[in-house]
Amino acid sequence: MAADKSGYIVAAAFIGPGTVTTASIAGADFGFHLVWALLFSVVATMVLQDMAARLGLGTGRGLSDALLTLTQSRPLRFIAAALIISAIGIGNAAYESGNLTGAAIGLNAIVDIGTPSWAITLGVLAALLLVTGKYKLIESVLVGLVALMALVFIVTLIFASPDWSAMGKQLVSPRLDSDTITMVLALIGTTIVPYNLFLHASLVANQHKATEDSDILQACRRQSVTAIGAGGLITLVIVATAMTAFYGKPEALDAGNMGTQLAPVLGEYAQWFFAAGLFAAGLTSAITAPLAAAYAVCGALGKNTDMKGGLFRLVWLTVIICGVVIASIGVKPLLAILFAQATNGLLLPIIAVFLLVVMNKGALPAAYRNSTMSNLIGAAIVLFVVCLGLYKLAKLFV
């Protein structure tokens, strides 16, 4: 995988159907009052992904490998491996069903052969791309399609004559209460994705092995910030277009009318274009989710992360098959997705803490270790996410 695309692959991975839906609902229901959560998420993602990329460059190993080196205790290593496998491996299998379903819904809006048929077709396509190794070109095309969708949202937003004053006022009057906490956590959860930490570290490590080339380090860091920033901009624009189309208006946003956000520019073709964007976002994530699972699980088991390895292929194939089965039988994967969200919500602070520890270890070259500022920002991110989770938990019992 080309090193200059690793950050963009990570950005494309978190812009899936879940992000499109979450951002649309946030804009439609709360306008710009929750943009602060999105901005926090983007900055936090930049910080954590930068650590993951430096880890891969400095050690030539993925995040799973690095985490398991923190202790020589077999029980603790077993617990860590089990947590990684359950949260990333099983969790990504649940998310895969959502990715395939989102892409299938998009395609079915254009050619109606049924979402189960499209889910199976897309699963086969994702598997063929991964097994041949030629998925890189396809993924680049998909990233381009998502970028094109962002461009159309921007043009739509301008032509829709949004109330910029209202956006500004809502932006500086953030909300965090019992009515918004769930959406705040959803915005954070759809942007700061734990499996992307494993994916980014492994992609960079496999491309460069261990290197102390400062030019490569700086280029990787710049590209990561740029790519993740672009992903955040796409999400922000979706929030803005949904706010313009639905906020404060009698028509409520639902799965059937999400595409009307684009109606001011595209008219009767709005739903089709939105469907194409949903397909692009879904298929991109449908490729990266099993890939990340394979890197994480193989690393947790101490196995080779070569993409041509038998276990590596078995893991991503299992994730795809699980996603196809759940998506094609028409069962809403709510319980599976809830499990994935719960385990990933539990995993994020834990992984972030361990990542902070790893990034200060002497085994990492000095140029790649965390600075004091990086440690403080990383610790603040972890503390904030934990506090939000505890706040949500407390509200359940009040």
Automatic annotation (TrEMBL):
It is a multi-pass membrane protein. The keyword Transmembrane applies. This is Manganese transporter. It comes from the Bacteria. The keyword Membrane applies. PANTHER family: NATURAL RESISTANCE-ASSOCIATED MACROPHAGE PROTEIN 2, SOLUTE CARRIER PROTEIN FAMILY 11 MEMBER. GO terms for cellular component: plasma membrane. It is found in: Membrane. GO terms for molecular function: cadmium ion transmembrane transporter activity; manganese ion transmembrane transporter activity; symporter activity. Its main location: membrane. Keywords: Membrane, Symport, Transmembrane, Transmembrane helix, Transport. Pfam families: Nramp. The chain crosses the membrane at residues 7-28, 34-57, 78-95, 115-133, 140-160, 180-204, 225-249, 269-302, 314-340, 346-364, 376-394. It comes from Alteromonas confluentis. The lineage of its organism: Bacteria, Pseudomonadati, Pseudomonadota, Gammaproteobacteria, Alteromonadales. Coiled coil: none annotated. GO terms for biological process: iron ion transmembrane transport.
